[in-house]
Design goal:
4-stranded antiparallel β-sheet, single chain, mainly beta
Length: 128
């Protein structure tokens, strides 16, 4: 099994900053052999989950218009980590943030395949 563990959420004042992290861990004997898409989504109360930022190998990074210029996604392919630096936070950034990683995993390389994994979610609250 593979688990994505998120950290870094919290409560901040408008204009503040937070840094979210998401790291994949190998559990039992299942192994990670590669990673491609890494992304952050968020879900506000009563709204659908939306894509905030995505990093795909050999492609330009995507940011939603609402966070462009304020958020920065970065990745660590060696440690299967993805981070989201959030600056100049606004109340409308409030929500639960989820990471997603597309991982090549298996018990051996020969039987590995690509799967999407989600983190458990971390709460971000921006209020005066």
């Amino acid at each position: 099994q593979i688990e994505l563990v998120e950290s870094g959420g919290g409560s901040v004042l408008p204009g503040g900053s937070l840094r979210l992290s998401c790291v994949a861990s190998e559990l039992a004997s299942e192994r990670i052999f590669n990673v491609n898409n890494m992304a952050w989504y968020r879900q506000a109360p009563g709204k659908e989950r939306e894509l905030v930022a995505e990093s795909i190998k050999r492609r330009p990074i995507y940011y939603s218009d609402s966070v462009k210029g304020r958020f920065t996604i970065s990745r660590d392919d060696v440690r299967y980590g993805v981070h989201l630096q959030m600056n100049n936070l606004k109340p409308e950034d409030t929500g639960t943030y989820y990471c997603k990683q597309s991982l090549l995993k298996g018990y051996t390389y020969d039987d590995s395949d690509w799967f999407d994994h989600w983190g458990q979610g971390t709460q971000v609250t921006v209020s005066p």
